[in-house]
Amino acid sequence: MESFYTLQGEGAHTGRAAYFIRLGGCDVGCHWCDVKESWDADAHPKYPIVEIVEGALQHPGRMAVITGGEPLMHDLTGLTLALKKAGFQTNIETSGVYPVSGVWDWICFSPKKFKQPHPGIFEQANELKVIIYNKSDFAFAESFVPLLQPHCKLFLQPEWSRSNEMLPLIVEYVKQHPQWQVSLQTHKYMDIP
């Protein structure tokens, strides 16, 4: 769908320079999605892997973040191997509803209530990032913790349109449950892509 060089605005790698590769296609259907234009994979042109990697190489940062849509709708083996060969750290953000393909340095698992994750994601996730849209999302977030590896980092992130309401609840929750951290969409505060 698009690619761009910016800073990672969310989760464990917040503030790091990153080349984002946003793939078209998603069937999860989050009503609060901020990139609904990504849902129809056929609405976006296809690019050869070599062209995607060449675009990434135009910038000094060597962290590539594959996102979507839902990127695991696609077999990402070829793309991630090419990025790694070119010297990139490969990161993904996924809802985890499809089996993991590709070679990853970092997997951000961001489950959604609208579609169940594939069980293979639990042992591979480096980071759990749950969007908090309403109070019931705290229990939803906690439901994944026993399924994950002990090293998996845990993040709660307010849904952008409800930040004023949900952020104070998240702060209090993290104070009471310190295994969690707060993630904010810092790129929106900085007014960058």
UniProtKB/TrEMBL annotation:
The UniProt keywords, alphabetically, are: 4Fe-4S, Iron, Iron-sulfur, Lyase, Magnesium, Metal-binding, Queuosine biosynthesis, S-adenosyl-L-methionine
- One GO molecular-function annotation for this sequence? carbon-nitrogen lyase activity
Q: Which InterPro entries match?
A: 7-CO-7-deazaguanine_synth-like (IPR024924), Aldolase_TIM (IPR013785), rSAM (IPR007197), rSAM_sf (IPR058240)
Q: How is the cofactor bound?
A: Binds 1 [4Fe-4S] cluster. The cluster is coordinated with 3 cysteines and an exchangeable S-adenosyl-L-methionine.
- Domain of life, per the record? Bacteria
Record: residues binding substrate: 7-9, 22, 67, 193
Q: Which cofactor does it need?
A: [4Fe-4S] cluster; S-adenosyl-L-methionine; Mg(2+)
Q: Which family does it belong to?
A: Belongs to the radical SAM superfamily. 7-carboxy-7-deazaguanine synthase family.
This one is known as 7-carboxy-7-deazaguanine synthase
- Whichever gene encodes this chain, its name is queE
